[in-house]
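Entry:
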Amino acid sequence: MGPGSAGIRAGTAGSGSGTTGRRPGSTGTRSGIAGILLLLLGAVTATPSTAPPPCAADQLRCGDGSCLSRSFACDGERDCPDGGDELGCAPPPPPPPCAPSFFPCRDGSCVPWVWRCDGDPDCRDGDDENFEICGTPRPPRACPSLQFPCGSGECIHRRWRCDGTPDCRDSSDEEGCATPPPCPSGQLRCRDGRCIPAARACDGTLDCRDGDDEEECPDAPSCPPPHRFRCRSGECIATEQVCDGQRHCRDWSDEPLKECGVNECLVGGGGCSHGCRDLRVGFECLCPPGFSMDPNNRTCHGPPGTLLVGTRHQVLALGGPEPQILQGSLKHVAALDVGVEGGSLFWGDPSEGLIYRASLAAGPAVPLAVVPGPGSPAGIALDWIHGLLYWTEPGSGRVAVSDPSGTRHRTLHRDPRARPWGVVVDPLNGYLYWSDWGSRPHIAQGAQDGAPPKPLVTEDVERPQGLALDQSSQRLYWTDGRLHTVSSVALDGSDRRTHLRDPQHLAQPLGLAVFQDWAFWTDPHQGSLVAAQLRGGSPTPQVVAQELFSPEAVVVLHPGRQPSGSNRCEGPGGLCSFLCLPSPARGPGSPMFSCACPDGEHLDSDGHTCVTEPPETTKIPTRNFSREGNASTGDLGWTGGPGGARPGVTILGVLLPLGLVLCLGAAARALWQEWRRRNTNSISFTNAAFRKGPADPLDGGGLGDPLRPLTSEDDEP
């Protein structure tokens, strides 16, 4: 929505009168303190005066006898009931013309030209969205079959419909829902509609999806760390009494066998915000140079940074006495990142499908040469070491990369079932992370060179959107708009933590930034920027800025967020004809980079040059029976052999195995015939006149003539 006036016009109070100069209908009552005193005095006066008191010199009288400040006369608005303050006024001067980059509304106001026909009425009468100017509005993008279309345009899972928690920006997923039946006796209903046993409320375990069974519970006794330890049975003991071999808690929770005598720094970094050093008893937290230790001895704080927030039409810098507009009159700012050393600002505009670049100091916005798909980009991340820009496209399920100018870009991953959203890059280690709330919500880890990704977080994650990487602690943070949480995990997927669960302040978190143990997130639905301390201090969220118009992205402008590192693409990497992408260290001798080509092309055999021709395939040799063949050596003129192999060697390699197979087959047949001959059944008679005679050669073998008399030759062997 375009900017509008939101003030209350103040009038001057007339001395001795019972009214003030405040405009009728404005906030507050029309009569002031003087009017209240007159009413009190009139209540005890026996004979009230019927004549109205005179108006002050700087006031005028309306037709009903009331007084009005003259400053309200002839201002184009009717303040007296009879409109007497606007009678006899000169016609108002015409409004000044709008600048070329602004659109003139019918009421005389001006709105940026890029706001015209964006589906959002910015003029008071909605003239910038007039059908005669914009034509038929584009139909909203159809949602997949398993998703619910919100009235505000986005798509959510169908199982989130009518679950008691608004997930659409306009809460349309909770409209027209039937009232759920009451829970059985002895059970209570969660906000998501499920029923749980009433005995599970306030037991320290989250049984409801939103954790509302642990809200508004009586305060439990607390033991302030790090000097006290709270037993699971409820009592508090000194920290020195933990793991000393003696029982101090009723339930022995101060002597866990699997935890005593271990290195605390190996488990969650000991709870330190940055560094941890194990001691003989316990541990101590360490801070990097330039940071100071908080009184809780766990949290490090450095120089303050500046917050950059992307609202719908502006990029604001928060940190000074007043917000500073870095870029204004924009169409839609949905994704944001910054190059601290180079002083460059990048943002994505999903309404135009473009990525823009501008200087942090001042200067016009320049669109990059990349044209993402529809409804994108949703997240962008800058590799400040190798000069690469990564972004996500939830509409097409694509993760892509380009150089800072956008002239060379490539698709790294594409999955139509995925909806990649937030993205961060870790150029020190060569990895890329993004949140995906498609058919299977998860946090993915991929390599910067485009190697196949793997899921890093798959459990207890439903709508991950905001994503942030803390380089100092080497942890990955994300917000879940469905579970209303801020969680983190180590970069290897271990040591997962849920830092905050707050359905009120984390109703619909979107953008996320983490720095110096603080988390900052945006809530477009409530128009606010919220912060909370992750470790140490109070975890209660604090509203940093409010009444923002649809804030979606937030980043921290601080050199500590982008530490320096070695460029893997320097030297040999310059040989890549298109893009050089850094590779993570996969083992000894693994390559430090990989060359990449634009979509539709591939690397040549040299591994550096991009070509459009299909890769060469091995040619099938052809026989040449020309007279040039050497018959004495068995050369039959075999040409086209792979690798320049000699034709004679190729023929021998084929004929020798074939001859061996034929010989084996002949031997096997002979053995089979001999076996059959020896095992053929014969009939023998004791009568010498009837004996088996020789086979008739014309008959092919068999019995002889049984009537032929035997001779002496028949008995010879």
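The helical segments are 33-44, 131-134, 647-678.
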